[in-house]
Specification:
Order of helices and strands of chain B: HHHH
Structural class of chain A: mainly alpha
Order of helices and strands of chain A: HHHHHHHHHHHHH
Strand content of chain A: under 5%
Helix content of chain B: over 70%
Strand content of chain B: under 5%
Radius of gyration of chain A: 23 Å
Largest sheet of chain A: none
Shape of chain B: elongated
Number of helices of chain B: 4
Distance between the termini of chain B: 59 Å
Oligomer: heterodimer
Number of helices of chain A: 13
Helix content of chain A: over 70%
Chain lengths: 325, 118
C-alpha cells in the first residue's frame, strides 16, 4: 500500500516538474516548485527519512519559495517566449536520460537489504551508536559526531553564501520612493485574515522550531531543520508586520553576529576537544565519561548549526526585501 | 514487483533530465535556477531511495522499536546537509540575478549576451 502511495506521489512529482518548466509565468513556476518540494518531502518520509523530510518541507516549500518570490519582485514575473530552437537541448537530454535509464537496470532493486550501500558502513553506525554515543536518533549521531568535519564544512558553506548575498545586495544602492517605503514597512497589516492567522501561528512555529532543535537527539530534528523553521516563522512575521518591525525584533547586527557566532561555536567545540587532549571535533574528551562527552558535544554543535542557519537565512531574506527597484 | 523495484530510479532519471533541460534550453536566468533546484531534488531522491531497506523504519531507536530493521542513516545525513547548502546556493544565484537585472535591465540570457557584444 505504501509503495503504491509512493508511486502515485512520484508520478505527481514528475507531472508538477513538467508544469514548472513549461510555465511562462514565473510566479506560477515558483508556486509549483513549492508543491513539488512538498511532494518530495512526503516521499522522503515514506522512504524512512524523517529528518530529511522535515528539512525539505521547511527549506524547499517554505524558505526557497519566499526567496524566489522576493527575487521575482525585484526582476520580472514573466519569461520571454523562446526565440532560439530547442532541438539540440532536447536531443542532449533524451540521450543522457536514456544512458541513465540503461544504468538503472544494473542498480540493486528498491529496498534490497543486501545492496552494497547497506553492507558498507551503515550497519556499523546502527550497531555502535547505542554504545558510543547513546542517543536514539542515529542520523543526529552521524551528523554531529562521526561526520562532524563534514557538517562543519556545510555550516561554513551556508555562512559563506550568506556573506556572498550580503556583498551582492546588502549595502548597495537602495533607491525607492517614500510611498514604496511605507508600503514595505506596513507589510500586510490591512489584510485582517492573514494577520489574525499569522499572529496565532507564529509563536507556535517558533516554539516548534525550538522543540526540533532541542529534541533533535531523540526524534527527527536538529540544527538545520530548527534553523529553517525559526527563520520561516520570522519571515512570516516580517511579511505580515513589515520589514521594520521584524528588524526591531532581531536587528541586522544581531543577525550578522548569529551568522558568525554559530560557526564560531562549532569550531570552538572542536578546538576545546584538541585542548583537552583529543583530536579536532573529538567530543569524547569533553567529559570524564566519553558517552556524556559525545552527547555534550553534539548538543553544542547542533546549537551552533541552528544559530548560523537561522541568522544566515534571515539575513539573506532581509537583504532581498530591503532592496527596492 | 520486480519492474516497480526500479521505479524510483526512473523518476530520478526523468526529474534529473527535466531540470537539466531547463538549465540548457531556458534563457531566463530565474528559470535556469529553478531547473537547477529540480536537478538537485532528483539527486536527493536517488540518495534517499538507495538508503531505504524493505520493511525498515526511520533510524531512531525507541523502546517500541526493539529489534526493528532500520534504513541506512548515512545517505540521509548527506542529503540533510545538502538541502541546506542547496538553498544557500540558490540564494546566492538569486542575488546575482537581481544584480544582473539592475545592471542590464534584463534577465534573459540572449539579451544580456547581445548587450555585452555591443
Amino acid at each position: 500500500m505504501t509503495e503504491l502511495f509512493g508511486i502515485f506521489l512520484l508520478t505527481l512529482l514528475v507531472i508538477t516538474a513538467v508544469a514548472v518548466v513549461r510555465a511562462q509565468n514565473l510566479f506560477v513556476a515558483v508556486m509549483l516548485m513549492g508543491i513539488a518540494s512538498l511532494l518530495i518531502a512526503v516521499n522522503f518520509f515514506l522512504l524512512d527519512a524523517a529528518d530529511v523530510a522535515l528539512t525539505e518541507a521547511a527549506v524547499g516549500a517554505g524558505i526557497s519559495t519566499v526567496l524566489f518570490l522576493s527575487a521575482l519582485a525585484l526582476t520580472v514575473d514573466r519569461e520571454k517566449a523562446p526565440k532560439t530552437k530547442v532541438g539540440l537541448a532536447i536531443a542532449v537530454t533524451v540521450v543522457a536520460g536514456l544512458v541513465i535509464f540503461y544504468a538503472t537496470l544494473g542498480e540493486p532493486r528498491f529496498g534490497d537489504p543486501n545492496s552494497p550501500v547497506q553492507t558498507h558502513v551503515g550497519p556499523w553506525y546502527l550497531e555502535k551508536t547505542p554504545e558510543l554515543v547513546d542517543i536514539p536518533n542515529v542520523v543526529t549521531a552521524v551528523l554531529g559526531s562521526y561526520r562532524g568535519y563534514d557538517t562543519l564544512g556545510e555550516v561554513f558553506v551556508v555562512f559563506t553564501a550568506g556573506i556572498g548575498v550580503l556583498f551582492l545586495l546588502g549595502h548597495g544602492r537602495v533607491r525607492r520612493s517614500l510611498e514604496e517605503e511605507t508600503r514595505q514597512n506596513e507589510g500586510l497589516r490591512h489584510y485582517l485574515i492573514p494577520r489574525v492567522i499569522g499572529q496565532l501561528l507564529i509563536p507556535f512555529i517558533i516554539l516548534f522550531g525550538l522543540y526540533v532543535q532541542f529534541h533533535g537527539e531523540y526524534g527527527p530534528g536538529g540544527g538545520f531543520q530548527a534553523g529553517a523553521i525559526i527563520a520561516a516563522g520570522m519571515i512570516l512575521y516580517a511579511l505580515l508586520e513589515g520589514e521594520k518591525h521584524a528588524l526591531t525584533v532581531i536587528p541586522q547586527k544581531v543577525l550578522l553576529g548569529m551568522m558568525a557566532g554559530g560557526a564560531l561555536l562549532y569550531t570552538t567545540v572542536g578546538i576545546a576537544g584538541m585542548l583537552m587532549g583529543g583530536n579536532f571535533l573529538d567530543y569524547s574528551v569533553l567529559n570524564d565519561n566519553p558517552v556524556i562527552g559525545q552527547q555534550t558535544g553534539i548538543i553544542l554543535i547542533e546549537a551552533g548549526v541552528g544559530i548560523t542557519v537561522t541568522g544566515t537565512l534571515l539575513a539573506i531574506f532581509h537583504a532581498f526585501a530591503a532592496r527596492g527597484d | 514487483m520486480d519492474i516497480l523495484g526500479l521505479f524510483n530510479y526512473w523518476v530520478f532519471a526523468i526529474l534529473l533530465m527535466i531540470g537539466f533541460y531547463a538549465v540548457l534550453a531556458k534563457k531566463n536566468l530565474v528559470k535556469k535556477l529553478i531547473g537547477l533546484a529540480l536537478f538537485q531534488s532528483a539527486v536527493f531522491l536517488l540518495y534517499i531511495t538507495v538508503g531505504k531497506v524493505e520493511g525498515g523504519t526511520a533510524p531512531i531507536f525507541s523502546a517500541t522499536a526493539e529489534g526493528d530493521l532500520f534504513s541506512n542513516p548515512l545517505p540521509q545525513v548527506l542529503i540533510l546537509t545538502a538541502i541546506v547548502v542547496g538553498i544557500s546556493v540558490t540564494a546566492l544565484g538569486l542575488g546575482i540575478v537581481v544584480r544582473i537585472k539592475e545592471e542590464y535591465g534584463s534577465i534573459e540570457e540572449d539579451e544580456i549576451l547581445e548587450m555585452d557584444q555591443q
